């Protein structure tokens, strides 16, 4: 290697080492500066100040680039607003959302979200919506319109991401669920037809190993008409730990309600039951009708849902809950068993969010699994496939990593 090449390699290696030290310094804080041997300058100093304010352990109130890591956002709205602006300047949106969430949890900033100027400064996401919904009853009128605008932005973003695929997936499932014995050519299910006629395989003369299947029986599906083909009941636990699931369920409920071939009902519950079906044309109204927190009576909620079932064989009930039952456990299980025996497709989701399964009642999850209803967490991207399988009465695509069965 030439001297120039050696110099270039050495320079690149030094730059990589410097970047590694810089990152460790940012992670470990000012106390590590001497041991790491790396000081911060310029933009890095400001980024460190933003991190100091949230994750430091000292007593300095500002946290804006001092030499010691300190936590001091306190309850000062101007300081928090300034900090929110800083982190949006220095970090990507995904990191900003995590830092905001940590600030609310670690530093008790929920009360500041009742101020309109604070809401205008935050990066809106599903978790922020959950926090706003938990504060809904304490929110002054001057803040509610701003809060609704924040919630609507998140809801519209979710609809753009989820609605198209959900409608396409479920429309296909509804079409396939109406199977017929004499389909038109374009409606033939060739995979099922070939498997059903393999006994009619005939080798072709003169062709080495070649043959054909004689389709004595065609299997296909009719196109779903415009009339209602399936009833869907979303039964949602509105306890505080289910906030992200409630937000996603409201969006999906609105999407399902927009499909003419589905009759969708949305029920939320704690120790009481509320039917929000008449608000499904606007998921924001649904969310502001939710009261996060309180106890849980799954049995009472399922009793209400059961009373609204008129076509069991064409009904899908989706229970979204962490299964911490405050009502009558045995009655809850009997209701699930009775619904399944009548022909209802029953789905139990421990969560409908990107975070995976929350803490949940494993005993109840196992009991439901014994009834043939596995309980598992579901991401929003997987939900259309779960619903399609339920509509077609196929085994649910339960994630392999889920421990609850």
Supply the helix-strand structural class.
Answer: alpha/beta
What best-fitting shape do the alpha-carbon axes yield? globular
Number of helices: 15
Strand-residue proportion: 5-15%
Specify the biggest β-sheet. Answer: 6 strands, mixed
| Tally of DSSP β-strands | 10
Mean pLDDT: 82
The CA-CA distance between the termini, in Å, is 60 Å
Strand order of the largest sheet: 7-6-5-8-9-10
| Helix and strand element order | HHHHHHHHEHEEEEHEEHHEHEHEH
Radius of gyration: 28 Å
Low-pLDDT parts are 58-71
In percent, how helical is the residue content? 40-55%
Characterise this structure.
This protein has 405 residues and is of the alpha/beta class. The strands form three sheets. It has a six-stranded mixed β-sheet. Strands 1-4 form a two-stranded antiparallel sheet. Strands 2-3 form a two-stranded antiparallel ribbon. A hairpin with a 3-residue loop joins strand 6 and strand 7. The chain is globular and about 80 Å long. The protein starts with a helix and ends in a 14-residue tail after the last helix.
Provide a short characterization of the protein structure.
By secondary structure, this protein is α/β, with parallel strands linked by helices.
